[in-house]
Amino acid sequence: MTDNQHNYISKASLASPYFPTWCPGCGNFGVWTAFKNALSELQIPEEQVVIVYGVGCSGNMADFNRVYGFHALHGRAIPNAVAIKLANHRLKVVVVAGDGDTYGEGLNHFISAMRGNHDITLLVHDNQVYGLTTGQTAPTTEKGTKTKSTPFGAPEIQINPIGLALTCDATYIARGFAGDIRHLTSLIKQAILHEGFSLVDMFQPCFTFNKHNTYHYFKERVYNLQEQGFTADNKVAAWEKTYEHDKLPIGLFYQDPHSVAFHKTLSQLDEKMLIEHSIETIAMEKAVSAFR
């Protein structure tokens, strides 16, 4: 297919006949808008993008974007995305998932994908609660918060996703806010263009089931790291930023300029994609290499 034959993603091409069923005021609308902005501004041919959706309110976005996509099981979006990327490493693969989906059920996959530096982009709707199941404690819920599943207060310390990503050597780590669509659009675009594992954790207020972490709560606290002169090249400095609570930093925490994506370490993929190999050839190569 020549350049003239590509169907490039645009806001019009993304239009679905189904309108979102999210609650009025949900932060998912801001994330959805920023994501569509990013995809259309990058002008990527639509046949070169695959979106894998997790389960939850965020995963319902599978019905609201007209793209090539796959709706995975709860907590299993990341391994599906990794498999798609390895099968055809020329694709841009994006995961859209929630904080419970990623940092709870899918935590082991999250860690493994970062350690391998798989070239996928992970967009996490972080609303500090299980929204689809109507307000239970999530891994990101602040300790002591009363929820439907913890009426006497959440007993565990909330997970630190940015700190965990730094520890596991993710090569692009950012955080955005659904209430700042322009900034979030920029972060998502950078994440998709980055070669290697990229995380964009997104503060996404749940208007219905989280009355604490509201738009007002975040607007009083968030500030832009880059506007304050922060440079995203020092893991120790980035780590310290993850422990700020009175003020909440958003923006790019860390990016590795020397990132080498997992698929680029596999000699089998130097000349052609995995889907272009025959099963017989791969089996023979394994047998030969075993005796070298």
List keywords for this structure.
8-stranded mixed β-sheet; 8 strands; 9 helices; 292 residues
How would you describe the overall organization of this protein?
There is one protein chain. The protein is of the alpha/beta class. It has one domain (19-261): Rossmann fold (3-Layer(aba) Sandwich). It is built from nine helices and eight strands. α8 (235-241) links the parallel β7 (222-224) and β8. The radius of gyration is 19 Å and the shape is globular.
pLDDT < 50 stretches: none
- Largest sheet report: 8 strands, mixed
Give the overall form.
globular
What amount of the residues lies in strands? 15-25%
Tell me how many strands there are. Answer: 8
The H-and-E topology, N to C, reads as HEEHEHHEHEHEHEHEH
Average of pLDDT:
93
The tally of helices reads 9
Helix content: 25-40%
The structure class reads alpha/beta
Strand order of the largest sheet: 2-1-3-4-6-5-8-7
CATH superfamily: Thiamin diphosphate (ThDP)-binding fold, Pyr/PP domains
Q: What's the end-to-end separation, in Å?
A: 40 Å
* CATH class division: Alpha Beta
Radius of gyration: 19 Å
**What count of structural domains?**
1
And the CATH topology?
Rossmann fold
Name given to the CATH architecture: 3-Layer(aba) Sandwich
Summarize the structure.
With 292 residues, the chain is an alpha/beta fold. Helices cover 30% and strands 15% of the residues.
